[in-house]
Design goal:
single chain; 384 residues; alpha+beta; Rossmann fold; Dna Ligase, domain 1; D-amino Acid Aminotransferase, Chain A, domain 1; 3 domains; 9-stranded antiparallel β-sheet; 4-stranded parallel β-sheet; 12 helices; 26% strand; binds adenosine-5'-diphosphate; binds magnesium ion
Length: 384
């Protein structure tokens, strides 16, 4: 396996596996730095393709296409975690370094491995049990109690693949059927007061740079608003940042690691899940931080020095889901743009669908309260 981590400088070619909005914004940051960009995605029309110098539409199991892709790249990264680690191994075998590594990807893409990793490192997370049958689920609920939540081990996102268990009387055979997966992870329900995330960049030499904590508000299990600075005490902020760095170091990740956390009433912090890539809760870094998360990811995976993670001003990010699109039309974007502090980002994803992430808005202001009020006003105007 090639683990060569020499710096890769522009105008070298960065390959990105996956070509959704995270790949698109990563590609834009890479191009701003003077890199050339190649994307690889099963879809011909994936939204990062239009930003890349070259796009390969092929499956992640197409070893020949992966080898051709690798031969044109100086370094390869990814934009989402549901890529088979074998695809990364194929690229490594072709002599091109991939960050994050197949091992990091394998841990972060599967809830069982993720939770077992956190447990093995003594990193605080929700109490959990791995279950593989209705009988195992019943035994686990008897041990952990209720409420609880059962999650699929593989391919969960935006609350998909999760079934809540409100009480011990819940029909667990029905819950198991609804999960429709061979393996699940049962988690105790955490009565958190706040959800936050911390994005850490880590270079191959072990240097880390950590962003301020972001406060996340979900609607229907999908991120709705991200607020920075998070409205937490300095102690909670420091605890969350330290925990995120600890996870990144324990994982030995190269690139970004986004760590989602629960904040409890007593100020303690638990790790919920992590993603080895740019994260939806970091989109406002484009407009409000010295270094955007996308630029930082490119720097880290290419072996360049990391950039300043400080926010220049408070900022709020509002996701724009397909639900906002009127039938057959487009939203009236002047409702966003007439606030001079609102920055509109659209991903050119084509067909809007309910819950589909079509774009986002960032409002940058002097105070969190002002940024939040303006983001909410824009949201209301778009829905009107
Ligand atoms: N153990 C838990 N206790 C309380 N709420 C939870 C728990 N697990 C998940 N949630 C809620 O569900 C959301 C989505 O769960 P998460 O595990 O982050 O999956 P994903 O983001 O991949 O859909 C979390 O952001 C949180 O609001
Ligand atoms: Mg999550």
């Amino acid at each position: 396996m090639n683990t060569h981590q020499a710096p890769v400088l522009p105008p070298a070619t960065l390959g990105i596996l996956g070509a959704g909005q995270l790949g698109r914004m990563s590609a834009m940051a890479a191009r701003a730095l003077g890199f050339r960009v190649r994307t690889f995605d099963p879809s011909e029309t994936a939204c990062a393709a239009g930003i890349a110098d070259h796009h390969t539409a092929a499956g992640y199991d197409d070893a020949e296409a992966l080898r051709r892709f690798a031969s044109a790249c100086d370094r390869v990264t990814l934009e989402f975690e549901n890529i088979p680690p074998a695809a990364l191994e194929t690229i490594l075998a072709a002599g091109v370094t991939v960050n994050p590594s197949p091992r990091v990807l394998s841990v972060c893409q599967n809830r069982r491995r993720e939770k077992e990793f956190l447990g093995s490192q003594g990193i605080p997370c929700a109490p959990f049990r791995v279950v593989d049958s209705p009988a195992a689920l019943k035994a686990a609920v008897a041990e952990l109690g209720a409420p609880a939540v059962l999650k699929t081990a593989d391919f969960g996102y935006d609350g998909k693949g999760q079934v809540k268990i409100p009480s011990r009387d819940t029909d667990l055979d029905a819950v198991w059927e609804r999960l429709a997966a061979p393996v699940g992870v049962l988690e105790a329900w955490i009565p958190f007061t706040l959800e936050i995330s911390v994005i850490v960049a880590r270079s191959a030499t072990g240097e880390t740079a950590v962003y301020p904590a972001c406060e996340n508000i979900h609607a229907n299990h999908i991120l709705h608003l991200t607020i920075t600075p998070a409205r937490v005490s300095a102690e909670v902020e420091a605890r969350a940042r330290a925990l995120a760095v600890r996870v990144a170091e324990a994982l030995d990740v190269v690139g970004l690691l986004a760590v989602e956390l629960f904040v409890l009433a007593d100020g303690s912090v638990l790790v919920n899940e992590m993603a080895p890539r740019p994260h939806n809760s970091g989109h406002h870094t484009i407009n409000a931080a010295v270094t955007s998360q996308f630029e930082q990811h490119v720097r880290a995976v290419c072996g360049l020095p990391l950039g300043d993670t400080r926010f220049m001003k408070p900022a709020v990010m509002l996701n724009l889901l397909g639900d906002l699109w009127p039938a057959g039309g487009i939203p009236d974007w002047t409702r966003v743009l007439r606030d001079p502090a609102a920055k509109l980002h659209l991903y050119d994803k084509g067909r809007p669908a309910p819950g589909r992430k079509m774009g986002h808005i960032t409002v940058v202001a002097d105070t969190v309260e002002d940024a939040l009020a303006r983001a909410r006003a824009i949201d209301a105007a778009l829905r009107a």
